[in-house]
Amino acid sequence: MFKQLQAELALSYNIHFNDVSLLEEALTQANYINEHPNYTGNDYQRLEFLGDAVMQQSTAVYLFKRYPEWDEGRLTELRISMVQTRAFAALSRELHLDQYVQLGRGEELSGARNRDSLLEDLWEAFIGALFLDQGQDVVMHFLGDIMFNKIDEGFYDRFVDYKSKLQEHLQRHGSVKITYTKLGERPVENNEQIFTVQVAVNDQVLATGEGKSTKEAEKVAARAAYQTLTKN
Predict the structure, then answer these.
(1) Active site residue 152
(2) Number of domains into which the chain is organized
(3) Partners of 200 in the beta sheet?
(4) I need a labelling partner for 54 at 20 to 30 A (CA). Which of 111, 145, 147, 181 fits?
(5) Mind listing the pLDDT tens digit for each residue in 83-113?
(6) Same-domain check for residues 108 and 173
(7) 115 and 102 in a common domain
(8) Which residues are annotated as a binding site?
(9) Among 43, 98, 124, 218, the one annotated catalytic
(10) Together in a domain, 211 and 125
(11) Gap between the Cα atoms of 204 and 177, Å rounded
């Protein structure tokens, strides 16, 4: 089963595990071992512990070097959006770890293979295994290919509640009136609509945003307003 995953990793990321047992350990849940008494390997929990630490440090180092002009607050905010459950779960799916994990029958029946919390664990365990097998330089190169390059795509913005962050920022000195107003909509391909929304505080326009729904457009407007305000 793991030969196919090894082939995918080699083809897409030039990753070649020297110790394949580490890769198998990273993708084996404790319940699977409990149901297979003859299984001699370990579950992923220790590798998950290591991978969590590696991810925190690697991401912090990358952001520190990439954004020398950012203060601690901005660096921390982006790091938090990157090293959290939904982001790691998405990366696990991109690597197809959900397809290769060895689960117990009960976990399989309960839909654990699609559970974000499990996929987060698998990602961290995989990184822990890669670190032990290949070292920090390979981990950083791999993260650059699959994770760090997504910053410029706005990949991590989806995991941030910018409407709440904007509200907290604007109300840090007291209550203010925040309004979202739909300015219009226009048709695009496939009979879809693009909505335009503006966000204002005390009737002063802060930013506008577009999206395939009013809710999405509000989020885009809130993100633009928040990023402009905090940058200034």
Answers:
(1) no
(2) 2
(3) 179, 205
(4) 111
(5) 999 999 999 999 999 999 999 999 999 999 9
(6) no
(7) yes
(8) 48, 121, 124
(9) 124
(10) no
(11) 10
Answer with the one of 137, 159, 181 that is the final residue of a domain: 159
Residues 212 and 153 in one domain: no
16-34 per-position pLDDT tens digit? 999 999 999 999 999 999 9
Residues of the domain holding 223: 162-231
From residue 95, alpha-carbon distances to 26, 129, 172, 189 in Å are 13, 14, 41, 31
Catalytic residue among 52, 98, 120, 133: 52
124 among known catalytic residues: yes
**Residue pLDDT, tens place only, 122-181:** 999 999 999 999 999 999 999 999 999 999 888 988 888 889 989 999 999 899 999 999
CA 159 to mean position of chain CA atoms: 7
**The sheet that has 193-201: what strands, in order across it?**
178-187, 193-201, 204-211
Name the binding residues for Mg(2+).
Answer: 48, 121, 124
